[in-house]
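Teaching soon. Got one?

===
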Amino acid sequence: MGFIFRFVFCGTIILTAWVRAAEIEPAARVAIVNVPNGGEAVDAKISARGTIHLIYNLDGIPYYVKSSNHGASFSSPLSVVNQESRRPSLVFSGDALAVGKGDVVYVAMSTNNWQLKLPNVPGGLLYATLTSDAKTFTPVRSFNQQPSEGFSLAADDKGNVAATWLAGKLYANRSRDGGKTFTANAEINPAYNPCDCCTTKAAFGADGDLAVLYREETNNERDMHLVVLAKDGSQSRTRISSTLWKVNGCPMTYFALSTTKEGYIAAWPTKGEIYFARLDRKGKVLPPGEIKTAGRSGMRSGVVALSASDGTTLIAWRHQEELGWQIYDLEGRPQGPPGSIKSAGKGAAGVVEENGRFILFR
């Protein structure tokens, strides 16, 4: 298999080469691209057409940009928050991004109004969308109409969209018409007891099932679980972390989930260290099982998990003003030394292109 690699420095393509996969040094498969205007990366997705979509936070507002040239340049930043929704001292934070059928963009947000308590400000999971032919996002609205956190979005190319979130329990709303209408707020399963100050991650599998990654808190055993909501209405839950973590208090961690040909890849922190695992379409952990990385993570720090078509995996993490990463082969063996670069903030975002090249945003 061959790949075209375009190496990027400070957002500019400086070299193009055609090489075989076996000839690629692991470090050469990772490109670091600066977030426009010094913003803090939140989430990124890549469409089937190769368009990169990115949201980032800057000065209390989430912004959206896209790139059709491998991250060498971006469209003009577009505010996700309409002017009428803004208030003095009200800070909006982008939480999640999904790109669905027709390249419709979906963004989940939150605010600091739980502190300010300003009147007439939507609460809970805030939501805005952008169609491919629109020049502005729809006005910000409350998606779930209740205090909540841990927001995630997922979308596929068939018009399915999902939002997952936490409010004492684990919730999901589903849409089958491209996000025009959603099911009512509903617990995925009343028996699930999520760690309420962590987050959720959702992804549609290749077979159309919805996978949801979350951390349990029952008996203070803060283990990672993957729930698979099948198209036929059935569901299953698998504990995917094998390193146990019993702690009296929410560790406030973020984690990552993305779709692969075989199923999914997930990454998460346990006791401040980053682990990952490959999973089949039902959520079962594939050999060699849970893999400990060189990464470390603090509270509410970004984690990225990406898998290329040849089975190569990239795990990235944020820790102490640095963005770090490591590439792994199909058997879970590290390829080359870990990489790192100075990067302010706590967010982390990345995509993998069709040619197997990973792009991380700093």
Q: What stands out?
A: Residues 188-362 form a domain with the Methylamine Dehydrogenase; Chain H fold (CATH 2.130.10.10). The longest strand covers residues 12-20. The chain has one helix and 28 strands.
